[in-house]
Predict the 3D structure of the following.
Amino acid sequence: MLSYALRTLTRMALTFFAIVTIVFFATRLSGDAIDYVVGEGITSEDRALLIEYYDLDKPLFSQYLAFLRAFTDGQFGLSFIERRPVSEIVVERLWPSAQLLLSAMALTLLVSIPLGIAAAIWRKSWVGSAVMAVAFLGYAVPNFVLAIVMVLVFSYWLNWLPVVGNGTALHFIMPTVAMAGVLIAALTRFTRNAMLDVLGQDFMRTARAKGLPEARVIVKHGLRNAGITILSVIGLQVAGLAAAGSVVIEAIFAWPGIGDLLVSSALRRDYPVLQFGVLTVALAVIVINAAVDLAYAWADPRLRHTVKA
Amino acid sequence: MTYPAVPAPSLPAAAYQLWRSADVIQKVAILIGITLVVLAIFAPLIAPFDPNSQSLIARLRPPLGFERAKAGYLLGTDELGRDVFSRSLYGLRLTLMLAGLGATLGLMIGGTLGLLAGIAGGRTEASIMAAVDTQIAVPFTLVALFLLAILGSSIQVIVLVLGLAGWEQYARIVRGEVKRLMNMPFIEAARAAGAGPLRIARHHLLPNIVSPLVVQFTLSLSNIVLLESTLSFLGLGVQPPTATLGSMVGIGRDYMPTAPWIVIAPAMMILLITFAVQILGDWLRDGADVRLRAR
């Protein structure tokens, strides 16, 4: 288990290092960001001052080293537009994003696990086909279209729900559903397939043979085994989908999270914020992936045994 | 070396065979797909108006059949008096074109790297697969956002970004197939006959991996359409006044309370594309699987 954990952590660190490097060199592809931000009407002295301030006059490689140093001293620079440390700007966006992500995840689990199990148990009846059809549709509907349609119906026509912000519980409904849509579609499919794999196993027949009620067989023996596969899928696929989804959904609903920040700083070309924001989200996704990987190894006795042997 | 010639079925016959094997939903998807492609190709002939020509007196008119509708504007007009139907057609055209180019670029990048990884092995393979893993680990929407902000939203950059989305899938598939095929006797025979790696790749490997690539191409097409629409929707894709389906939804969003038709037509088209393409992709994949099993 320990060597497995070490390998996972090493891979995680390497991936993050690769992303940091790519992000750094990509930002320097575009020439002087100063020109974009300040635009015309700046004196050449001021321009030189800014270039010196942002270290744009140093050789590329020492800029890169300075960029890496930020990870040890925590100085990631100032926002071009807000003139505040980017770390401050990004950090205050984390909690609203996490709230939305957690509520979308909760909804996803509550809906897709029972649906997936139902689709597996009754796979030959109309229940199974109906669930799979809905899951398919959920996959084909882009999240921004779902969001727009909901806004149109529930905010403008029915006047039930607020459109922007995150003030009250009512504000959570539409963003959560819009974000969970594609996640539910994905996870329902995976749950169904994972359950189908388990349902045919010998230990399920044994559990039934020893007289356990069917519900107990499904939950205790079926779901617990399928759960391991489902868990890994949540980490690998769902975390990525959720991160991508939060960008769009937060922008639509003006949710004060990190996705909204990324879009607005991309539109305003506020590179320091964009750069740090992308790295933060990338790090979050990598950490979640690694955590799920470890949980997977920990939860699956078979894997633990092979590691011990 | 010659092979006994297997008479290839004529194209119409093969197409008819495929059509017969499809179920109702798949037939619907095929018809939708064909209709969309025809509309996109002939957009300049079908569209009644120039997609960018504005008319101050015909602003925010609803579709025909509603009160205040203006004759000739089938799906109404937008906030600048542009014809929504014409813009949707041109938007569809551009969206499909960008997606096609992006998917092709992804196929070329990923296919080449996968082939290289599978044939060369060793360090080359390890570093290519490390790049694949990195790409998988980061949600691509973020990367796309970042690249477009930095490099600007020109058509070239957009195609590049769309091409970078999904190359890793091709690389994985091609590498896997190549590794499997490299152990087959016919490759060994080719090598023994003196064929170099390039000849083996071109004449022996590529023909054998066409069908999984076609399937992956179709599946990735709907992802790429979605990505392009999302980016345009956010204002980071193709820049106004050029119409793409995503940007029409994104800009029309502001007029939704009073003029929902601006958004509905392009949103429906995006839905139809992803719906049709995904069903076709699944269908092709199942077909390819059957052939693999029969082998």
